[in-house]
Amino acid sequence: MIYLIGMMGCGKTTKGRAAAEALKLPFYDIDEIIQRSSGMTIPEIFKEYGEAHFRKMEQKALFSLGNQPCGIVSTGGGIVCQGENIQFMRRTGDIIWIFRDIEETVADIDAADRPLLSGGAGRLREIFAQRRQLYEDAGELFSGSAEDLARLISLKLRR
Predict the structure, then answer these.
(1) Which of 47, 51, 135, 157 has the fewest CB atoms within 10 Å, measured from its CB?
(2) What is the domain range of residue 128?
(3) Is 120 exposed, middle or buried (0-12, 13-18, 19+ CB in 10 A)?
């Protein structure tokens, strides 16, 4: 598996889906798996049950991919907050940190659909500051196009 980590709004899903299509690989989106299994949107889960419950659902969705065909996985931005998740991803594949300048993300992101961003742009910067080292430690830094990502993944899968 190839696991894409990074901040919300950095392009994990968009670039990951395009790379998977180009490489003819399965694409898995953790948020979509959670929404499908729960019948709720991510904001609804946060509102009804809170972040801790969401993180448990996120981990369950991640671990469920262990039995799936090799593909590209778009994770949630907070997946790195639990060490067990990082260990699982390292054990079962490669981790790529999709990096995007935080100010570009702030300019583009719609906080209405992001439960952790009720504090606006300042909250996004704060979350990034808290997670940056986790991203750096967990994954190989990548900043480029979906085509560049597909090339990188192709090289990794040939190893």
Answers:
(1) 47
(2) 2-154
(3) exposed
